[in-house]
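Q: Can I borrow your eye for a moment on a structure tokenisation matter? Would you mind producing a protein record, from residues through to fold? Write it directly below this note and I will take it from there.
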Amino acid sequence: MFAESVPVALRALERAQVLHGKTPPDAFAARLAPGMFDVRTQFFAVAGFALRATYPLAGRDVPVLQGDAGARLAQVQSWLSQLTEADFTGAEQRVITHRAGFADLEQPAAVYLRDFALPNLWFHLSMAYAGLRAAGVALGKADFDGLHAYPDGFTFDD
């Protein structure tokens, strides 16, 4: 379960740090709709879900994070970089008890990772990206995934 969780979480953290680095100070308060998290809180959630996608599988408690979004992303990246495959011995047999909003859940580790932790990690990264785009921050798909390339001035309009 190490390979299915740690590299994926590290990738999401790396992309979050790219987006965070391109976020002007006034855009951290942007949100897509009333009642949604703002961009700052979306970055907090990315850091939190990177931990939630890995630490329970390794039989560890998820630590409480402190600091601004950039510090949290960097701290979690550092912690996850120290995990090894040996830390995940027995992960497949674990049952993860957790909360999803106001729901109390108990899921086998593989189901927890596949159906809850990783989708939420990428959801919050996507919402940070979307909030920044809605706030007018000049970002493209390459900023989100680090893979796409488009020529300057390219648009899907027309």
